[in-house]
């Protein structure tokens, strides 16, 4: 079985850190604790200073950026809506034209079929003694 060295490494690092602060404080645990808290506070302040939005007027800057982004989204949405409306009207016009063309073609075909049926009926009637 392999054992992880991570717990031993973490423990050794913690012991080293405690030893460092105790040595610098001259062996006083209270002074070492205060120095540790001071260092943690400095590190935290340093990290927070480098985060975005940490400046005092950051909220105002971000409001302007947010408003600008919102207006761009609104403009894009309205443009897309306009294009969709145009496409819808074009499709409706095309379908009306296609429907009209189809009805004309069906009527033309129907007229030819009726004409052919009338001719055929006349031809068959003449076989059996009917008149045209």
Descriptive report:
This protein is mainly alpha-helical and 132 residues long. It has helices at 6-24, 29-50, 58-127. Helix 1 (6-24) packs across helix 2 (29-50). The radius of gyration is 45 Å and the shape is elongated.
What are the key terms here?
132 residues, Calcofluor white hypersensitive protein, mainly alpha, 3 helices, elongated
What topology emerges from the helices and strands here?
Layout: H1 6-24, H2 29-50, H3 58-127
Helix pairs in contact: 1-2
Protein name: Calcofluor white hypersensitive protein
Nutshell version of this structure?
This protein has 132 residues and is an all-alpha fold.
Strand element count: 0
H/E element order: HHH
Helix content: over 70%
Low-confidence stretches: none
Structural class determined from secondary elements? mainly alpha
């Amino acid at each position: 079985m392999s054992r992880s060295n991570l717990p031993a490494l973490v423990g050794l690092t913690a012991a080293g850190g405690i030893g460092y602060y105790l040595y610098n404080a001259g062996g006083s645990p209270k002074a070492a604790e205060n120095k540790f808290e001071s260092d943690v506070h400095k590190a935290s302040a340093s990290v927070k200073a480098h985060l975005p939005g940490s400046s005092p007027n950051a909220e105002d800057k971000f409001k302007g950026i947010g408003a600008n982004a919102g207006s761009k989204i609104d403009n894009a949405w309205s443009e897309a809506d306009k294009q969709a409306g145009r496409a819808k009207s074009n499709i409706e016009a095309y379908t009306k034209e296609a429907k009209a063309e189809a009805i004309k073609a069906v009527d033309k075909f129907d007229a030819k079929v009726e004409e052919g049926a009338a001719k055929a009926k006349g031809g068959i009637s003449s076989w059996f003694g009917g008149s045209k």
